[in-house]
């Protein structure tokens, strides 16, 4: 008989706010919000302490609205270097108990502790030891879900916050999970939930009892997985190596002020494309698909993408696609945020560009030039060697300033260079 697995999902509570309070004890127990610079239109709440949440402050609320809901709200700008440091320390604690740790973002990860016996303790007692260890050493609260698989562990960790430990067994799924709305199931977003409701599927129980072939027909492989999870089934192992897998590399920036000026917009698109290009090169990958994100002044957001005939990593190639997508899909209204993302990543050596006998020398020169520019900007900053089209009333260094203050992809970079592996994303809770 196969031994049942014991999986932990360790989820840090209000991570950014908790880290700030750990560094500055005077913030503990007070309503605190982490938000960007309001003067530069980055005044959106990223996360908030539980004291602030109790008064109605929650992401992604505009800062002015949060301060209205909670007079006396303390506000701190995000410090991603600080959060990465604390994240590394947190994961070092998890690794001290087992090598079977799968980080999934800066503030959460899975542990397979099936065969871990720490000082005679196991299961629920071990979860308490780990939770206390993190809090004692780092002053960071966490919640831990304990279950026989990753999906149930994730659902369990969300049930008691802050500082909760919840056990969720497969036999308890009908009583605990089935009454919940479908959108409350991990992996089901608002758009999927809307589509489910149009199909008459409103709860997790509805998903569990639906015809799996019907779900597969409507949602593809995701439909099959939804059916399995709704029934408490999840065969995915805790995979420490999955942190090396990444599907996209993207950058976005909130504009200092809403604009419909095409020249300003194209300049920002080039800056973003250049940044994505250098990150692709740094990771030795090409992108086979370019995605553009546009957020309008009313916060309506669209994403559009284009599959490429061959993978690319150069600024010009990325920019050309992003600019064309913008031309095709922009509705002419003022823009608040722009993002460019390279997707369908392919490792170098596994991608082929059709050889153009007339332009191959130009391609080689362009590659050398882009490589040199990337090295110089990496050393001296984003403002170095700006093209004429990249210089405006605000320089590129203003548009793509210090990564700390921007909503760039943290994704899989947060444990770089530590604990012997490459082990950013925002926290919701």
TrEMBL record:
Cofactor stoichiometry and binding? Binds 2 magnesium ions per subunit.
- Reactions catalysed, as given in the entry: DNA(n) + a 2'-deoxyribonucleoside 5'-triphosphate = DNA(n+1) + diphosphate
Record has 4Fe-4S as a keyword: no
Superkingdom, natural source: Bacteria
Write out the residues that bind Mg(2+). Answer: 11, 107
Q: Which cofactor does it need?
A: Mg(2+)
Q: Where in the cell is it found?
A: Cytoplasm
> Which CDD domains does the record associate with it?
PolY_Pol_IV_kappa
> What GO biological process terms does the UniProt entry carry, in alphabetical order?
DNA repair; DNA-templated DNA replication; error-prone translesion synthesis; SOS response
What keywords is this UniProt entry annotated with? Cytoplasm, DNA damage, DNA repair, DNA replication, DNA-binding, DNA-directed DNA polymerase, Magnesium, Metal-binding, Mutator protein, Nucleotidyltransferase, Transferase
A GO cellular component entry from the record: cytosol
Q: Which InterPro entries match?
A: DNA/RNA_pol_sf, DNA_pol_Y-fam_lit_finger_sf, DNA_pol_Y-fam_little_finger, DNA_polymerase-Y, DNApol_IV, Rev_trsase/Diguanyl_cyclase, UmuC
PROSITE patterns associated with the record: UMUC
Q: Cross-referenced Gene3D superfamilies, in alphabetical order?
A: 3.30.70.270, 3.40.1170.60, 5' to 3' exonuclease, C-terminal subdomain, DNA polymerase, Y-family, little finger domain
Q: Quick check: keyword Kinase in the entry?
A: no
Which parts of the sequence are annotated with region: Disordered?
A: 391-429
Reported EC number(s) for this entry are 2.7.7.7
Which portions of the chain have biased composition (kind: Basic and acidic residues)? 399-422
Locate the UmuC domain: which residues? 7-189
Sites marked Substrate discrimination? 16
User: Whom does it interact with, and what assembly results?
Assistant: Monomer.
Primary role: Poorly processive, error-prone DNA polymerase involved in untargeted mutagenesis. Copies undamaged DNA at stalled replication forks, which arise in vivo from mismatched or misaligned primer ends. These misaligned primers can be extended by PolIV. Exhibits no 3'-5' exonuclease (proofreading) activity. May be involved in translesional synthesis, in conjunction with the beta clamp from PolIII.
Give the family per the record.
Belongs to the DNA polymerase type-Y family.
Protein name listed in UniProt: DNA polymerase IV
